[in-house]
């Protein structure tokens, strides 16, 4: 096992939205490092695939914006893991793309409910378990949009800015209990979700997909997208011995996004 994974063997971790995308990359990597992982997702076919490929990972269907679902998630996780050492608040959606005067308030609420309130609902149930374990770690997934304003993506950007405030507040509140709290800010992550975002933005401003993709890459110093595995490696570092004194931080894993 690499030194980056020091301290992950046997770690009891809940990862939200872990059956696909970045969440699945996190689940796979933590499990490979010897952590005991429990996850949830709303996509039942993806959960079924996860059960086949990683039978050692516990999983249930849960929507993080639902208090009842989150309660079931943590009851099931505690039964299987016997406690908790880390929470990865990964669940999120892209939300609507459009001018602010055209946005549907219901779509705004749904985006904020999942991307921000869902993290609160999970954290409030995780913290007593982390305290009982003598401390631990929380990693909240924000975004480069939580550092930069994002025209035509105001619900998403607003929620992700909120995650930063949530993270910094929790770091101060929970530090005395030995609980580290950090945020990861992915940039443009390779995959179907980002393709959909670029396509929607291209349609919004009336240019081709290729032109809009080039525009996104021109705003990144390294001129490349990051991968889901890049994010998983960063999560593992924050949970590892290497991250034992890192708290209250916003870690951009984005190739240095200069603007959005």
UniProtKB/TrEMBL annotation:
Source organism (scientific name): Bordetella genomosp. 2
NCBIfam families: PRK12826.1-2
Similarity annotation: Belongs to the short-chain dehydrogenases/reductases (SDR) family.
Protein name as annotated: 3-oxoacyl-[acyl-carrier-protein] reductase
CDD domains the record matches: SDR_c
InterPro entries the UniProt entry points to: NAD(P)-bd_dom_sf, Sc_DH/Rdtase_CS, SDR, SDR_fam
GO biological process: monocarboxylic acid metabolic process
Signal peptide region: none
């Amino acid at each position: 096992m690499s030194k980056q994974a020091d301290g992950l063997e046997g770690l009891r971790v809940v990862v939200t939205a872990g059956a696909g995308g970045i969440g699945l990359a996190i689940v796979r990597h933590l499990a490979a490092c010897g952590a005991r992982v429990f996850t949830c997702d709303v996509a039942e076919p993806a959960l079924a695939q996860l059960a086949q490929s990683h039978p050692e990972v516990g999983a249930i269907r849960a929507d993080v914006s639902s208090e009842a679902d989150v309660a079931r998630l943590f009851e099931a996780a505690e039964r299987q893991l016997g406690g908790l050492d880390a929470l990865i608040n990964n669940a999120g959606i892209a939300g609507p793309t459009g001018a602010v005067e055209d946005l549907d308030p219901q779509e705004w609420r749904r985006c904020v409910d999942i991307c921000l309130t869902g993290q609160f609902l999970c954290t409030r149930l995780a913290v007593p378990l982390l305290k009982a374990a003598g401390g631990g770690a929380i990693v909240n997934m924000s975004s480069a949009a939580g550092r930069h304003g994002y025209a035509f993506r105001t619900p998403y950007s607003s929620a992700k800015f909120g995650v930063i405030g949530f993270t910094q507040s929790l770091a101060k509140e929970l530090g005395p209990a030995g609980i580290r709290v950090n945020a990861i800010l992915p940039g443009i992550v390779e995959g179907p979700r980002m393709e959909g975002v670029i396509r929607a933005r291209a349609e919004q401003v009336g240019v081709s997909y290729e032109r809009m993709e080039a525009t996104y890459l021109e705003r990144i110093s390294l001129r490349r997208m990051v991968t889901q595995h890049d994010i998983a490696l960063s999560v593992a570092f924050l949970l590892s011995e290497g991250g034992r004194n890192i708290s209250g931080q916003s870690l951009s894993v984005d190739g240095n996004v200069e603007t959005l």
